[in-house]
Amino acid sequence: MGRKIKIITSLHTGYCFGVKRAMSLIEDGLDHCDCSLYSIGAVIHNPQAVQNLESRGVIPISSINELKTGDTMIIRAHGVDPEIIEECVKRGIKLIDTTCPFVKRIHEYVKQMAGESRSIIIIGDAKHPEVRGIAGMARDNTIIIDSVEAAGRIEGIEKAGVVIQTTFSREESNAIISVLEERIDDIRVHDTICEATTLRREATLKLAEEVDMILVVGGKDSSNTRRLYQMCLDHDIPARFIETTSEIDDSWFEGFSKIGLATGTSTPDWIIGEVLARLSETQESP
Ligand code: SF4
Asked: How far, in Å, is the centroid of ligand 1 from the Cα of 203?
């Protein structure tokens, strides 16, 4: 019998503080309400966790128009546009607000800087719900950029306030901020990248020094998991990205004796457990 492949798990895996907190508020909501709970879109960027919640009464919807007075809606950990909250209150829809305190802090920075007549620049992905929610805090006075090239196109702004999507890469945002600082005289930057993602990225790079390849586990639509995987590729680290054990192909590990396991911030512990159990059966190829 061959030797088993050694698996080393990153120091930081599983739910981050904000996702843990959100899941516990949702559990409380399910315990205290004999009804369904609704969320606009998936409550967490992990399809398996979403399926699990759905079977227990957490229903994704696409618009608040699907709700009626008295229904309960979950505001997800990355927050929503404040107009949606106002509309829910107007319509008598109850809310379970799981917005992560770190995202709420960005909302406060934006409101404060918009109050000082600064143009708000958000460094992040314009399609991400967190970024849309942040942009909603300053209404029309917002520019969203996600690259050095986009920063280089900014013109005619004298006074700006900058915040960063919590899961954005620090290297990229530093490069973008350097360009903005050259182009805008009065600029205030709040570094709002969340430590949870920074620590994961640092821990994964460290882990890569000890292993032959990194297996990144998480939702394919999870921005921080995708970025973690991309970071491995950018550093020429052999890596694979999976959501569940069914995607694992033993041929990936040929010639390797040590595999590192890293995850995004919305990967449930039970999926990590399944992946570890599956990998524990894997033998080193001769
Ligand atoms: S990644 Fe950070 S900001 Fe986002 S939910 Fe987790 S703790 Fe909150």
From this structure: 17
pLDDT reading at 2 higher than 80: no
Separation CA 136–CA 83 (nearest Å): 7
- The model's confidence at residue 139, banded by pLDDT at 50, 70 and 90, is confident
Nearest ligand 1 atom to alpha carbon 102: 3
Residue in 190, 265, 267 to alter for ligand 1 test, most ligand atoms within 8 A of Cβ: 265
Structure confidence by residue, pLDDT tens digits, 6-20: 999 999 999 999 999
Contacts 24+ apart (CB under 8 A), 47-50: 47/219, 47/220, 47/221, 47/243, 48/243, 48/244, 48/268, 48/271, 49/266, 49/268, 49/271
Tokens (6 digits) for 194: 């969340």
Q: Stretch 168-187: mean pLDDT, rounded? A: 95
- DSSP class of residue 153 equals T
**Which domains does the chain show, CATH number per domain?**
6-14+195-279 (3.40.1010.20), 17-99 (3.40.50.11270), 102-189 (3.40.1010.20)
User: Quick check: CB of 204 below 6 Å from ligand 1?
Assistant: no
Predicted confidence at residue 1, as pLDDT, reads: 56
pTM: 0.89
The pick from 13, 194, 263 for probing ligand 1's pocket by mutation, whose C-beta has the most ligand atoms within 8 angstroms, reads 194
